[in-house]
Amino acid sequence: MKIQLSEHFTYKKLLRFVLPSIIMMIFTSIYGIVDGLFVSNYVGKTAFAAVNLVMPLMMGVSALGFMVGTGGSAIVAKTLGEGEHKKANEYFSLLVYVTFIGGVIFSLCGMLLVRPVASLLGAEGALLDNCVLYGRICFISMPAFMLQNVFQSFFVTAEKPKLGLGVIIIAGVTNMVLDYLFIAVLGWGLPGAAIATVTGECIGGFFPIFYFARKNSSLLKLGKTKFDGVVLLKTCTNGSSELMTNLSSSLVNSLYNLQLMKYAGENGVAAYGAIMYVNFIFISIFLGYSVGSAPIVSYHYGAGNRDELKNMFKKSTSLIAIWGILLVLLAHVIAGPLTKIFVGYDAELFALTKHGFLIYSFTYLINGFNIYGSSFFTALNNGLISALISFLRTLVFQLSAVMLLPLILGLDGIWGAIIVAEAITLCMTLFFVFSQRKKYGYL
């Protein structure tokens, strides 16, 4: 039975509604790491390091898609909650069209920036050539990748999370099959990995356009619209936390790579890349839950239903606490096997990666609350607080920690920097939660 945004959510109903979004994010993470897995095992660690060096740039450029998706879906869901369905569809259409145009522009800019950015991060010789080759091919599909990020949020707002999951699965399976064919079978190396990624992202980004452009059974439909600067500004403001998260993460990841090049060389960058791939899968549970539950919060906020806001906040924080404990336990059980999958061919690199991941994993006790806290305020259309949480979490505190802790703890200071940053951020998140409780009525 279809679950509607307007319903009261029990734990069972809430999990049923958000599960497709969680699986979608996990699957997105899995097919996002397949390139690295095949490159590491079939092409070598220099090519693997190149993928990891150029990835922050691509994720930073694609951040506009996350911004429009999260910020825009909050506005559209709130408008639906207010009963303005025609206006909601106009907003939805405008945001999709703007994302595509922006994607084309940023695709061209990204191709030009790959070489100077990689060079700035210390790449030279074969490593630099690999960065440029992989990055320029991947930037071809930037418009589609940004649209994919937008539609991940809007499928939930349209009450079609399962369809969104289906699109991601098809795109992901395509990417993985082509990775195997192009790299393992045909021996195309790094270009093969990039072409596989481009193909998968085009499916994930362009198929939803065909669905929403025709008559469908969802709450949303692509159609005529008009330029609305206020809506665009509100979307950017409201989704600025997601933009900040991605841009800051890209910057901080680059700084991690610089520090690791200093303390551990190319092996350090490769180890961090493997840890990040596993981390993407783990935190996708929190990210998926935030994406899946945000439209519910926005809808009931628009409808003025404070009881349901209290219900959602209580259930969400309980689920995040349980998942955080389980993820730390799981990380310690599977650290060895997972590390072996990526870098088992090199004993020294294997030991370095496993040790780093065991330290890094304790962040899952904390970061779920910060991720949800930022998303929750975005859903309440309070982009300022959401952006502050993200800015402090992903830039200020991590930047400080990764610069200072290695001076005291050496390489272990790099692995543990994220834990310190998340713990300090949690204090700030709690401050905002309690200071805004009367205004929104979720406590």
UniProtKB/TrEMBL annotation:
Family annotation (InterPro entries): MATE_fam (IPR002528), MATE_MepA-like (IPR045070), MATE_MepA_subfamily (IPR051327), MdtK-like (IPR048279)
TM ranges: 14-34, 46-70, 91-113, 133-151, 163-188, 194-213, 319-338, 358-380, 387-408, 414-434
Keyword annotations: Antibiotic resistance, Cell membrane, Membrane, Transmembrane, Transmembrane helix, Transport
Signal sequence segment: none
Membrane topology, from the record: Multi-pass membrane protein
Domain of life, per lineage: Bacteria
Protein name per its UniProtKB record: Multidrug export protein MepA
